[in-house]
């Protein structure tokens, strides 16, 4: 009989107490080694990165506070109103006495919320209760500013959205930033922002008209003078990280590029709206205003840096008429339409609330879409390739130049507006009489154009289309036009 060799009960038995103690000691040794390695690595990394002047951006995560924001605003079915918006207006105490007159033109004290943010407190006798309340910005001396050509006020203005958010105002869906020399069409702003979901992080605005400015800063940056709209969740995220972010960009020039840098760190792209106008131009703004994009007019900046919009008036007088027309019919303000007088072969190009151009020949819509370059860029450059939109050279032939009829007065007529546009005296009027006799005789007695403008539908801006025009009864001295939204189907140009 074969016998089984006798063995020690503890040898070769994996479940024996001795083997379990041995295995646990090896695991503990491994854990201690890994922990020591992690501690030493962390210490080494801290030593290395402590030598850099600024920390890197923290990884983005879906924080608890952001989760609360989304749940509070998600599914927001209520229609946006102006009371859902808080305005942060960047101002200067030294310039406020003049600039406040521009804000007065569009601010509605009874139903708007917001503040003018200044670098210092105004004297008590300079406070106007009909304008937005004044706020003094927080001290920014702790931030580095190393740009050799800019001004540290850019840091102060960049933080306005965060300071607005930290006021803790209730029921805010949007924060809108603008300068104190910006005119805003509040009704159109509400309509445009109403397209977007304010429960998400949204960054709305427009780049500059200047190609050089966009190249220097960014083609994907909203310029602050034209206005920047920031949804509530994005403002909340900015308020949590912006101060640390600003430390990483001491070399940047101004406020809007610093704001853009921090929004870029959050991963939010610019949503472009063509009705926001930085207006980085100088001189005569006629070519820009008369070719407004087919979109609601929202804002215009640098209003004191260009010639008066309407000839024969001061800048402020001109802006009062401009904003009067804007308020009476905001949806169709500055919208264009084209009428043809087939018998006399004339073209009427209307920019509602601003100007009617009468061409002594037939001009096709594609040519009228381009902006006549009556201005130079903010940097003084006048070449066409300096601008990031379609332009055309000014009319050189006196016989092809349009005769301009600028808005003189406007009033309500039912649900429409009735505007009177009066002929503007041109410097080359005598040359036109001499060299363009055949064309000029058709227009020599025309002094006034009346335009009856009907507003487009409430949702016109969602699927925009150029307004249509009808030529009514005419006489040698007065022409009557009617403008309104086109019907469905083609609009035929019978000429």
TrEMBL record:
Bias (Low complexity): 1-14
Transmembrane spans: 27-49
Protein origin, superkingdom: Eukaryota
Keywords linked to the UniProt accession: Membrane, Transmembrane, Transmembrane helix
Region (Disordered): 1-23
Entry protein name: Beta-1,3-glucosyltransferase
